[in-house]
Design goal:
Blueprint lengths: L2 E5 L2 E4 L4 E8 L6 E8 L6 E6 L6 E3 L7 E6 L4 E6 L8 E9 L14 E2 L3 E6 L1
Parallel strand pairs: 2-11
Antiparallel strand pairs: 1-3, 3-8, 4-5, 4-9, 5-6, 7-8, 9-10, 9-11
């Protein structure tokens, strides 16, 4: 069983930065692909960014490319989402997700991930 705990959300102004963290309680963290999804009120949960176990490959949703960066520290069992140049449309609950995988492909569908955190709210004011 994998437990995920997100932190780092908050209320910021447009143009500001935030860094989200997700700590995983698992022995073999490097064998799990990790991803961030977000869900705004009334919308479905959508893929934001993902990273494979080694950290050597990442994938991003088009609207966040160049502004958000996913990374991981396998020694600390933690994945990060650095969020720069935040926009009001980035406002959502952000969820960390994990899936056990040895492939080179980052999955973008929510149903591909087996484990989820409780979410952390990010609010960007204009």
């Amino acid at each position: 069983q994998v437990q995920l705990v997100e932190s780092g959300g908050g209320l910021v102004q447009a143009g500001d930065s935030l860094r989200l963290s997700c700590a995983a309680s698992v022995r073999t963290f490097s064998t799990y692909h990790m991803a961030w999804f977000r869900q705004a009120p009334g919308n479905e949960r959508r893929f934001v960014a993902g990273i494979i176990g080694s950290g050597s490959r990442t994938s991003y949703e088009d609207s966040v490319k160049g502004r958000l960066t996913i990374s991981r520290d396998n020694a600390r069992n933690t994945v990060y989402l650095q969020m720069n140049s935040l926009k009001p449309e980035d406002t959502a609950v952000y969820y960390c997700a994990a899936r056990y995988s040895g492939t080179w492909t980052v999955a973008v569908g929510a149903t591909s991930y087996n484990y989820w955190g409780q979410g952390t709210q990010v609010t960007v004011s204009s």
